[in-house]
C-alpha cells in the first residue's frame, strides 16, 4: 500500500469545466448574437459598438479585461474537458496524448489571451 | 501476433441506435462550437492587441458569409447548450432541500433558464447602454 494517497487533479479540470459551462450557458447565446450577428450585420446596436476606440477602452479597463479573459479562458477549458471526455464515446482512446492535446490547447489559448491583454495595457 | 482473431463486436455508431444517446452526443457536441467561438474571440483579441488596422480587418472578416453562417450555427448550439446545461442540472448538483421538501427537478431547470434569459437580456441592455 502506498504511504500517502496521491491527490487527483480531476477536481481542477472539473471546476474549470463547470465554471465555463455555467458562464457559456448564461451568456453564450447573447455573446454570439452580439459579436457574431448583430454587430457584423448592423442589427439593433449602434454601428460603432465594437469600434477600435471602444474595444481598446474596454480591454484596458480592469472589469473589461477580467470579462474578456474569463470568457475566452473558461469557454476553452469547458470545451477542452467536454471534448476530452467524449473521445472514448467516438472510439478514440483518451490517453495521455489526448489529454495533453485537449488541456494543452486550452492552456495555450489562456496564455495567449493573458499575453494579448497585457500587451493592450492598462 | 495472436492467431486466434476473436470476434470483437464493432462499436461504430453505437450511439445512433438509441435516441437518448443521439441527444447526448448532440449536447456534448456543442463543446465544438464553444471552442470554435472562443477561438474566434481569442483571434480578435490578438488582433486588437496589434492595433487599429488589424482590429478593423478582423471586424470586416466577421462580415464574411462563412463566418455569419458559422455564427448562426453557434447561436443554435450555444442556445441548446444553455437548455441542456440546466436540464441536466438537477442531476449534477447536490440535492437542495427547501422547507423539508426536495426541490423538484423542474424548479431547478426552470429557475436556471429564467436566470440565463435575464443574464442574456441584461448583457444586451448593458452593451446597448455602453454603445449608445
TrEMBL record, chain A:
Keywords: Cell membrane, Membrane, Transmembrane, Transmembrane helix. GO terms for biological process: fumarate metabolic process. GO terms for cellular component: membrane. It comes from the Bacteria. Pfam families: Fumarate_red_D. The chain crosses the membrane at residues 12-45, 57-79, 100-120. InterPro entries: Fumarate_red_D, SQR/QFR_C/D. This is Fumarate reductase subunit FrdD. The gene is frdD.
From TrEMBL, chain B:
Pfam families: Fumarate_red_C. The chain crosses the membrane at residues 21-46, 66-86, 106-131. One of its GO terms (cellular component) is membrane. InterPro entries: Fumarate_red_C, SQR/QFR_C/D. SUPFAM superfamilies: Fumarate reductase respiratory complex transmembrane subunits (SSF81343). Keywords: Cell membrane, Membrane, Transmembrane, Transmembrane helix. The keyword Membrane applies. The keyword Membrane applies. It comes from the Bacteria. This is Fumarate reductase subunit C. The lineage of its organism: Bacteria, Pseudomonadati, Pseudomonadota, Betaproteobacteria, Candidatus Accumulibacter.
Amino acid at each position: 500500500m502506498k504511504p500517502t494517497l496521491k491527490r487527483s487533479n480531476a477536481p481542477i479540470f472539473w471546476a474549470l469545466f463547470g465554471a465555463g459551462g455555467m458562464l457559456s450557458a448564461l451568456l453564450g447565446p447573447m455573446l454570439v448574437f452580439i459579436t457574431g450577428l448583430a454587430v457584423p450585420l448592423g442589427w439593433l446596436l449602434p454601428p460603432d459598438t465594437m469600434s477600435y476606440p471602444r474595444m481598446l477602452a474596454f480591454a484596458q479597463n480592469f472589469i473589461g479585461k477580467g470579462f474578456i479573459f474569463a470568457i475566452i479562458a473558461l469557454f476553452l477549458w469547458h470545451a477542452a474537458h467536454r471534448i476530452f471526455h467524449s473521445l472514448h464515446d467516438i472510439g478514440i482512446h483518451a490517453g495521455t496524448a489526448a489529454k495533453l492535446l485537449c488541456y494543452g490547447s486550452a492552456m495555450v489559448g489562456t496564455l495567449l489571451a493573458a499575453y494579448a491583454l497585457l500587451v493592450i495595457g492598462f | 501476433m495472436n492467431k486466434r482473431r476473436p470476434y470483437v463486436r464493432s462499436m461504430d455508431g453505437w450511439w445512433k441506435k438509441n435516441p437518448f444517446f443521439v441527444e447526448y452526443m448532440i449536447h456534448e457536441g456543442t463543446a465544438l462550437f464553444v471552442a470554435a467561438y472562443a477561438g474566434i474571440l481569442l483571434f480578435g483579441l490578438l488582433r486588437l492587441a496589434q492595433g487599429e488596422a488589424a482590429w478593423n480587418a478582423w471586424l470586416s472578416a466577421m462580415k464574411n458569409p462563412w463566418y455569419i453562417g458559422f455564427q448562426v450555427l453557434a447561436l443554435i448550439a450555444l442556445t441548446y447548450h444553455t437548455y441542456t446545461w440546466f436540464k441536466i442540472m438537477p442531476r449534477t448538483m447536490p440535492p437542495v432541500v427547501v422547507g423539508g421538501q426536495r426541490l423538484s427537478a423542474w424548479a431547478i431547470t426552470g429557475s436556471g433558464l429564467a436566470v440565463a434569459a435575464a443574464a442574456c437580456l441584461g448583457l444586451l441592455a448593458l452593451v446597448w447602454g455602453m454603445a449608445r
